[in-house]
Specification:
about 5% strand, two-stranded parallel ribbon, about 100 residues, mainly alpha
Length: about 100
């Protein structure tokens, strides 16, 4: 069975729900991902670590979700980001170009 690390501490989930969610073939609706993102950005939901959660807390200077993920990782790991995109300079990251 696939591990469901993000849902193990969710007190609101039943054992059956955890078992179903932890299956690899379990699908997650785009609407659910959107709701999770909104709740993370509002501080109503906390996920254990990870760059995806970190990207939801960034200011919206840059709307590209993949670039936001790169930013969150660079910030969390305190490493420079190599990019020609100067919008990264609006974040607390060392951009190299």
């Amino acid at each position: 069975m696939h591990s469901c690390g993000w849902c193990e501490d969710a007190a609101d989930l039943s054992k059956k729900a955890r078992r179903i969610i932890s299956r690899e073939e379990c699908l997650l609706s785009v609407a659910s991902m959107w709701e999770i993102s909104i709740k993370l950005s509002q501080g109503k939901l906390k996920l254990p670590g990870g760059h995806v959660a970190g990207s939801s807390r960034l200011p919206w200077h840059h709307p590209d979700p993949f670039d936001r993920l790169l930013l969150a990782q660079a910030i969390e790991e305190e490493v420079p980001l190599v990019s020609r995109d100067s919008v990264f300079d609006r974040y607390d990251v060392n951009r190299i170009w």
